[in-house]
Structure formats: C-alpha cells, structure tokens
Write a structure and sequence with these properties.
The protein is an alpha/beta fold. The protein is about 30% helix and about 25% strand. It binds flavin-adenine dinucleotide (FAD).
Length: about 425
C-alpha cells in the first residue's frame, strides 16, 4: 500500500525546519516534519549531562526572531538581555547606556572615518581588520569594532567589509543590537514552535533520519530510518557545501565549557552574556584560523535562563577552537581550560570557588553528543559571492538554513531563509 501523500515534507526540525513547516501548515498545506533526533530544535535546545541541564548551542537572538514567532502564532515570551564586553582597559555594556554613548562622542572622527571607508565600494573586498587599522586611531574603539567579527567565528582578517555590513543591514533587519532571549530557554522555544505546528494540524515524527530522496513524476519519495514518506514538495535543512565554490572554508568551530555554579553565587544582575577579549583580536583569531593555539584568546559566557534548580544554575562558555584541532589533544584542552579559568575571574570574581561541575566539550565531543556540528558559520562567504539560492531546480528541493541565502549566519538568518523559502513554495502551490 502506498504511504499517505503530503503537500510538503520538511527534513529537520531545527529552528529553520520548524519555521518552514509551521508557515506552510498555516497556509493550509498538509505538512509532515521529519527529525532524526529524539527532540526538536537542533542547535536550539538543552540536554542533561551527569544530572545537570545545559544549553546546547544558540541562546540569544536578534529581535527579528521574536517578530517571526508572533507571525507564526507561537506562545513564547522573550526578554531583552544586557551584554558586557570586557577589554584589557575598558568594559562596554550593551545596549549602550546614555553615558557610554556620550563617551563615544570623543571618538566621532574615528567613527566617521571608519563608516565613510566602509561605504566606499572599492573597500568592500578589503578585510575589516585592514579598514579598522587604517581609519580608527583609538585602540579600544578599534578592538570594540573588531570584536563584532567574533560572534561569527571568523577572524577580522578574513571578514570582508561587505559581509561585515550585511550583519547590520536594514533590509534584513535581524536587529541583533536589540537582542532577545526566550524565557524558559532555547529548548522551550523549539518545543513551543513544535506545539504550534502540531496544534494547527502538522504531523511531526522524531527519530526519522532521512536516508534517501527520489523524485519521480512530481512526487518526492523520502526514505527514512523508520518508514517512507511521499510529498509533492520537499524542504530540507541539510547544508549545501556543494553549492559553494571549491575551497570554501568553514568558520571556526566552537569549544564549550559547561559550568554548574552554586546557586548562592551571584550572577551579575540583569546581565546575560559576558565576553572577554584580550588585546589584538585579529592576532589571536588569525592564529586560531591558521590552526595554532594562541597564548591568549577571547571567550564569552552566559547564564542559561532555564527553569530554576534547587542547588545550581548552569553557565555555557564558548571559545573558538583552532582550525583542524576540532578533536583537541588533552594537553591543548587543558591549556585552554586553564586560561579560561584564570581569566573568567575578570568577568565573575570568585567564580572558581562556586563551580560544582565543569566539563570541556570539543567540537568532536559536540558532534558525538548531539550529531550536529558546533559551527556558527557553515562556510565563509567571500565578498563577491551571494549565498546559494534556496531552491534547487535540479532536485526540485527547497533548502533552508544558514548556509543559504539570505546573508547572515546566526539563527535569525536560518529562520529568515526558512520563512522566505516557505513563502515561495506557498506562492508556487497557489499559482
Ligand atoms: C555552539 C553554538 C552557539 C550558537 N549560538 C547562537 C546564538 O546565541 N544566537 C544565534 O542566533 N545563533 C547561534 N548559533 C547559530 C545557530 O544555532 C544556527 O544558526 C541555527 O540554530 C541553525 O538552525 P537550523 O535549523 O538551520 O539548523 P540546526 O539547528 O542544525 O537544525 C537542523 C536539524 O535538521 C536535522 N537533520 C539534519 N539532517 C537530517 C536528516 N537527514 N534527517 C532528519 N533530520 C535531519 C538535525 O538533526 C537538526 O535537528 C550558535 C551555533 C553554535 C554551534
């Protein structure tokens, strides 16, 4: 007997897949969503480790994500967090307070020179590092600007001005400067999108790894580890390295240090993310990019906003891993962990005495644990390249996620890609 025919099958229930599936279901299509793991969310989730609950990957989003959740009718609340970047001689809190903004006035000439240079078309291929070194005289301001390359895990020496500007594009409107964290944590966010999808009639299957897809006579036959599915249209969350030019390079992978802290230890009030940047950001990020372990490197951490526990709260700390050292030798791991535990005191004085549990997760451990890559930027997009389009006409498949158009590697990019692909698919169905 032939299996049920869906209008759309979506492969992967990460944020992108959940968004695309819910959009299509909302438009009246009959949608099935297949996920290989035993939970939804992909990189947006939590897990238990030796009795402690930790965030897996993403946790803080541009406010465009909140707008998308409202449009999808998802029942989730967000709060606006504060972030602090600590440099050698100065800290900045975001969103910037009026006093800090006033303090920036003394750098007006540097800022104007930098922005003017960024806007000149002949500079678009040049690196952020080059433009900053030529236009910004104040060292702390220069480090502050360069630190905006760090969240993409790309050294400022490789990040083109064109790609840097895209992060702040008004058209894409990710609005990372007004960031949001979901109340209840990232897994709750993903679970709530899934709840909305199924409440409006969508069908979700977990533990279904898609192993093969065949397209014949206008129907996609999808073979999974646990049954076959048929659909008129297919949306897939799989990354498209094959659509990038030969030699395209991944961003740097992230190491995670999970910390469970005694509940009595006070996390700075009103703060979410705390980042530490030693001097010469381009220097240490480029060393990482070249596969070397620098003596000093930056990291950031956040207090996971999960439902309260009796004895502890959990903190995730991320730092980039040197290229090709994703499966790091114990000595290198130890070196990174010691550096972090020495320097974390600058962000959280006294924290070392409050650690109940800690564990260092390399990108290789991350893959083994979650079956996902610990990558923010799947492939570095060169200045003269547009990311591959979602629709692959040869395979008749819409691909979604942060390896595809539109620009932007963070979760909001993946979600916008999914939303745009779903809209195109819905329009095609209607015509
Ligand atoms: C450590 C880390 C921290 C991050 N922090 C942030 C942050 O704070 N803010 C932010 O905006 N971004 C952050 N990012 C990036 C963000 O997590 C991603 O951009 C976003 O989650 C991508 O969503 P996605 O749905 O495209 O992919 P994924 O989350 O990878 O989801 C893909 C899903 O598809 C499933 N799947 C894949 N292949 C198959 C198959 N063949 N069959 C069935 N299922 C399949 C996978 O199991 C997975 O569930 C972070 C990334 C990492 C690694």
């Amino acid at each position: 007997m032939e299996s049920e025919l869906f209008d759309v099958i979506v492969i992967g229930a990460g944020l992108a897949g959940l968004t695309a599936a819910t959009r299509c279901q909302q438009a009246g299509l009959k949608v099935g969503l297949l996920e290989q793991l035993n939970r939804v969310g992909g990189l947006c989730g939590t897990y238990q480790r030796e009795g402690y609950e930790f965030v897996i990957g993403c946790n803080e989003f541009g406010s465009s994500l909140e707008r998308e959740m409202v449009a999808l009718g998802v029942d989730i609340k967000f709060k606006a967090p504060n972030t602090r970047f600590t440099f050698e001689s100065k800290s900045y809190q975001f969103p910037l307070k009026p006093l800090a903004l006033a303090g920036m006035l003394k750098h007006t000439f540097d800022i104007q020179r930098f922005l003017k240079a960024c806007k000149q078309p002949e500079n678009s291929a040049r690196s952020l590092d080059e433009i900053v070194s030529q236009t910004v005289k104040n060292r702390t301001l220069a480090q502050l600007i360069l630190s905006f390359a760090y969240p993409s895990a790309i050294t400022p020496a490789r990040l083109s001005v064109a790609k840097f500007l895209e992060m702040f594009s008004k058209e894409l409107n990710y609005d990372y400067q007004n960031s949001r964290i979901p109340i209840g944590g990232p897994q709750h966010l993903a679970d709530q999108i899934a709840a909305r999808f199924t409440a409006i009639g969508g069908q979700l299957w977990l533990e279904r790894r898609v192993e093969a897809v065949e397209y014949a006579e206008g129907i996609h036959n999808v073979a999974t580890s646990n049954g076959n599915y048929r659909a008129k249209q297919l949306i897939s969350s799989e990354a498209r390295q094959d659509r990038f030019p030969d030699g395209a390079v991944e961003g740097l992978s992230l190491n995670t240090l999970h910390l469970a802290l005694k509940k009595s230890f006070p996390y700075p009030q009103g703060m979410h993310t705390l980042a530490y940047f030693p001097p010469d950001i381009t220097g240490w990020m480029s060393q990482m990019d070249q596969g070397q372990l620098p003596d000093a490197f930056g990291f950031h951490l956040f207090c996971s906003d999960l439902p309260p526990k009796d004895e502890y709260y959990s903190v995730n700390l991320y730092c980039t891993a040197p290229r090709h050292m994703e499966d790091m030798a114990p000595a290198a791991q130890q070196q990174m962990e010691s550096f972090i535990l020495n320097h974390i005191e600058r962000l959280l004085p006294g924290v070392n005495d409050a650690i109940l549990y800690k564990t260092f997760i390399t990108p290789a451990d991350f893959y083994q644990q979650h079956h996902l890559k610990s990558l923010v930027t799947p492939y570095i997009v060169e200045h003269n390249m547009t990311k591959p389009d979602s629709y692959d006409s040869e395979r008749a498949i819409y691909y979604i996620g942060n390896s595809l158009y539109p620009p932007g590697e963070h979760a909001c990019g993946a979600v916008l890609c999914a939303s745009q692909a779903a809209t195109r698919l819905i329009e095609t169905q209607a015509s």
